[in-house]
Amino acid sequence: MHPDLDALEDARDDALEGAPDGGAAPRDRLGRVLRDLRLSVTDRCNLRCRYCMPQEVFGADFAFLPRADLLTFEEITRLAGLFAARGVRKLRLTGGEPTLRADLPALVAMLRAIPDVEIAMTTNGTLLKSLAAPLARAGLDRVTVSLDSLDDAVFRQMNDMDFPVALVLEGIDAAAAAGLGPVKINAVVRRGVNDHTLVALARRFRGTPHVVRFIEFMDVGTTNGWRLDEVVPAADLVRQIDAAFPLEPVEANYPGEVARRYRYCDGAGEIGFITSVTQPFCGTCTRARLSAEGRLYTCLFAVAGTDLRGALRSGAGDAAIGALLDRTWRARDDRYSEQRSDATAGLRRVEMSYIGG
Ligand code: SAM
Ligand code: SF4
Ligand code: SF4
Predict the structure, then answer these.
(1) Could you tell me the distance, in angstroms and rounded to a whole number, from the CA of residue 1 to the centre of ligand 3?
(2) Which of 272, 277, 145, 268 is CA-nearest to residue 214?
(3) Which long-range contacts (CB under 8 A, 24 or more apart) does 334-337 make?
(4) In terms of pTM, does the model score above 0.85?
């Protein structure tokens, strides 16, 4: 088995050529357009996944953002509208854990008024049982739920809060029942931690519309103790799943899609592999990220962001803020995962829980 490289080449060409709305879409220095905006709505979380928020760093003494520093729903919506005018077609709520932000359905309802955007959310699923229906009613389109293993002991160890698998599964069911499916299920793979439990995870969702996606453990931030030998290359994961349930590659859904997609040869659905480390996809990266306090990042591995909250709160008009967005995107030449250079060595890269993945 090998990834469908032709499809990836096509996706790259589309990302370079497919500027929406003619001239309104800025292009970065590598010719990439702006399509996706990830909105982190809080830097807090109720889990402490060791690959993201290790307890030793994110403990009782950790200084999370003060409430006054968070963008208000009005500020988030205004910025999202300005991004949409520049070609963004997909908004993704993230965090920290986005469902911890009070009144989240009210934010979704406000974002829903922006024309022609899809609204998705990435969540750990812990609060979905009660929130899925109100979020769907407010206009959320889809959810991605993170679940690293079906083995309860392994999952409790990975989330480091002793949180059980069963409640996340109930959250996934609630999301599907509310019309937020097919649900994508993200599992970060760490060698020696959960890589022996992946076939079981795939098996659980075979034959359902939901799509499991295995993610290579990434060296994002500076606190998660990342080591290359803990990364299981996606090619090995594909081989592992293929041996249990034969797979064949599927073409990318749209330019810039991050997962290598496969379908089960017996028609039991799809599965994806996110190969950020071993086969980076910077060439088709059309994503911008807005932190909960209003900093704009053009790469997951950035060390600095552009302060948009300052512009908002100084009374700048839409034209001035829009020009700042254009300038920031046009100056972008990020391709960290392709270079994997020492350019950021010794610098404090932004944390996943702050920027939202
Ligand atoms: N709390 C939500 C959740 O867990 O889905 C949203 C935020 S979380 C930072 C977004 C995604 O990043 C999750 O799917 C999580 O598993 C993934 N993630 C976090 N740290 C990672 C790492 N070091 N490598 C790969 N993926 C990571
Ligand atoms: Fe929380 Fe998500 Fe990070 Fe886990 S991956 S600690 S659930 S923000
Ligand atoms: Fe995009 Fe940066 Fe990730 Fe490359 S490393 S895919 S530029 S976020």
Answers:
(1) 25
(2) 272
(3) 334/282, 334/285, 334/298, 334/299, 334/301, 334/302, 335/30, 335/280, 335/282, 335/283, 335/285, 335/299, 336/282, 336/299, 336/300, 336/301, 337/276, 337/277, 337/280, 337/281, 337/282, 337/301
(4) yes
Relative to the CA of 352, which ligand 2 atom is closest? 3
Q: Using the mean position of ligand 3's atoms as its centre, give its distance from the Cα of residue 303 in Å.
A: 13
Tokens encoding 187: 């599992």
- Each residue of 260-312: pLDDT tens digit? 999 999 999 999 999 989 888 899 999 999 999 999 999 998 889 999 999 99
Structural domains in the chain, CATH included, are 5-355 (3.20.20.70)
